[in-house]
Write a structure and sequence with these properties.
Low-confidence stretches: none
Largest sheet: none
Number of strands: 0
Helix content: over 70%
Radius of gyration: 21 Å
InterPro entries: Voltage-dep_anion_channel_sf (IPR038665)
Number of helices: 3
Keywords: Membrane, Transmembrane, Transmembrane helix
Protein backbone atom coordinates (compact mmCIF):
# COMPACT_ATOMS: atom_id res chain seq x y z
CA UNK A 1 0.00 0.00 0.00
CA UNK A 2 1.61 3.30 -1.01
CA UNK A 3 2.21 5.97 1.60
CA UNK A 4 -0.08 8.99 1.64
CA UNK A 5 -0.09 11.91 4.10
CA UNK A 6 -3.62 10.84 5.03
CA UNK A 7 -2.09 8.15 7.23
CA UNK A 8 -1.56 10.83 9.87
CA UNK A 9 -5.35 11.37 9.97
CA UNK A 10 -5.73 8.12 11.92
CA UNK A 11 -3.44 9.31 14.68
CA UNK A 12 -5.59 12.17 15.99
CA UNK A 13 -8.58 10.18 17.29
CA UNK A 14 -6.33 7.53 18.81
CA UNK A 15 -4.20 10.23 20.46
CA UNK A 16 -7.28 11.94 21.85
CA UNK A 17 -8.51 8.63 23.27
CA UNK A 18 -5.11 7.88 24.80
CA UNK A 19 -4.72 11.30 26.37
CA UNK A 20 -8.29 11.32 27.64
CA UNK A 21 -7.97 7.88 29.20
CA UNK A 22 -4.60 8.58 30.79
CA UNK A 23 -5.78 11.87 32.31
CA UNK A 24 -9.37 10.87 33.16
CA UNK A 25 -8.56 7.52 34.78
CA UNK A 26 -6.57 8.79 37.79
CA UNK A 27 -8.86 11.77 38.36
CA UNK A 28 -11.91 9.50 38.67
CA UNK A 29 -10.07 6.54 40.26
CA UNK A 30 -11.23 4.34 37.37
CA UNK A 31 -8.35 1.96 36.66
CA UNK A 32 -9.98 0.42 33.55
CA UNK A 33 -10.12 3.88 31.96
CA UNK A 34 -6.41 4.35 32.68
CA UNK A 35 -5.65 0.95 31.15
CA UNK A 36 -7.70 1.86 28.10
CA UNK A 37 -5.71 5.07 27.76
CA UNK A 38 -2.42 3.24 28.09
CA UNK A 39 -3.50 0.66 25.52
CA UNK A 40 -4.53 3.43 23.16
CA UNK A 41 -1.10 5.04 23.65
CA UNK A 42 0.56 1.78 22.54
CA UNK A 43 -1.74 1.64 19.52
CA UNK A 44 -0.87 5.27 18.80
CA UNK A 45 2.83 4.45 18.69
CA UNK A 46 1.95 1.61 16.30
CA UNK A 47 0.12 3.97 13.95
CA UNK A 48 2.49 6.94 14.14
CA UNK A 49 5.64 4.90 13.54
CA UNK A 50 4.71 3.58 10.07
CA UNK A 51 3.40 7.02 9.09
CA UNK A 52 6.67 8.69 10.08
CA UNK A 53 8.77 6.01 8.37
CA UNK A 54 6.64 6.35 5.23
CA UNK A 55 7.06 10.13 5.26
CA UNK A 56 10.83 9.90 5.67
CA UNK A 57 11.14 7.30 2.90
CA UNK A 58 8.98 9.35 0.56
CA UNK A 59 10.99 12.50 1.22
CA UNK A 60 14.26 10.65 0.72
CA UNK A 61 13.06 9.16 -2.55
CA UNK A 62 11.81 12.50 -3.85
CA UNK A 63 15.09 14.23 -2.99
CA UNK A 64 17.13 11.42 -4.50
CA UNK A 65 15.08 11.33 -7.68
CA UNK A 66 15.30 15.13 -7.99
CA UNK A 67 19.08 14.99 -7.64
CA UNK A 68 19.25 12.26 -10.30
CA UNK A 69 17.09 14.25 -12.72
CA UNK A 70 19.27 17.33 -12.35
CA UNK A 71 22.40 15.47 -13.43
CA UNK A 72 23.41 14.87 -17.02
CA UNK A 73 22.52 11.18 -17.12
CA UNK A 74 21.24 9.55 -20.31
CA UNK A 75 17.53 8.80 -20.15
CA UNK A 76 17.98 5.03 -20.47
CA UNK A 77 20.17 4.98 -17.35
CA UNK A 78 17.81 7.05 -15.19
CA UNK A 79 15.44 4.14 -14.73
CA UNK A 80 18.29 2.18 -13.14
CA UNK A 81 18.68 4.81 -10.43
Amino acid sequence: MPFTPGWFGATFPIGALALGGILLGPSTAARPVTWMGQTAAVVLVGTVSPALVGAVVRLARSRFSASVENRRIPRFLRSAW
